[in-house]
Amino acid sequence: MIGSALIVGAGGQLGRGLVQSAPAGATVMALSRTELDITDETAVATAVRGLRPAVVFNAAAYTQVDAAEQDPLGAARVNALGVRYLARACARSGARLVHVSTDYVFDGAGNVPYAADAVPQPINVYGATKLEGEVAVREELGERGLVCRTSWLYAGDGHNFLTRMLTLMRERPALNIVVDQIGVPTTVDSLAEVLWRLAGEELAGIHHWCGSGIASWYDFAVAIAEEGAARGMIGSKPRLRPIGSAEYPTPAQRPRYSVLDKRVTENVLGIESPHWRDGLRAVLDRHASGAAS
Ligand SMILES: NC(=O)c1ccc[n+]([C@@H]2O[C@H](COP(=O)([O-])OP(=O)(O)OC[C@H]3O[C@@H](n4cnc5c(N)ncnc54)[C@H](OP(=O)(O)O)[C@@H]3O)[C@@H](O)[C@H]2O)c1
User: Fold this and answer.
1) What is the mean pLDDT of residues 203-225?
2) Does residue 76 lie in a domain region?
3) What is the rounded average pLDDT of the residues 244-251?
């Protein structure tokens, strides 16, 4: 039984998903950035002390991977310092913290899924600041802090690869998509459900959660085109051309391979993550039928 939960960053795609999937019996308090800026230490301490949640979910983050390269201090303020303020407030009030991190803490030089205890080595500013956030949770909360890393997160609405692709596929007859970055698409629904379960079981330490299987961005785009066309969400299927990352330079370097090994978390919760393509179908079915996902 979770009791009362405070969700910060509640206006983002994960924050909204957490609110929507709250288990029966949980008392949910949800604060968006305008209601609680996690970089304001006094505001964070006051909110946690005043609301007295049993658990705090941190869905707030600076998530613009490319913008972070030009704004490392801005990214660190949210992803590292803000997380420290939250963890510190939780430590003082006795609340547990469920914090979310990323596959981008890894360098992507490997070719087998990264276990939760694999050594992180970020290759971009976003990943480095997210790693600092993980460290802050450990330093402030010790064994009582929980970090769940995830990858390629998306829902049927909000800013993510799925919604961007659907828009582009309606506008353009052909698209070039990167094929040499490998990861796993993960639905907000599946992650939100797992975060509630991790909190309910009072687990701590580092966990991994993502879809099953692996994909390149190109594979993901092909699946979006096929599944989107089958549901009448795009007109005709666009031509998709696989390209290398070198053909699509971005300010931030991305890991070449960032598959997370989620088996420990699956075992401890006694659940199996759905294949990423089944996750995509479920999100599109909900979206096509007009429900917010
Ligand atoms: N998206 C992915 O592909 C992905 C992959 C791996 C891990 N993750 C992690 O998953 C978590 C959730 O990401 P998401 O996809 O839901 O991101 P999102 O949609 O960008 O949501 C992040 C939210 O945080 C809010 N925020 C930013 N700065 C804040 C501050 N100082 N105080 C309070 N709120 C603040 C944002 O508000 P504004 O909109 O007003 O800025 C936004 O509502 C993050 O920890 C992210 O690092 C995401």
Assistant:
1) 98
2) yes
3) 96
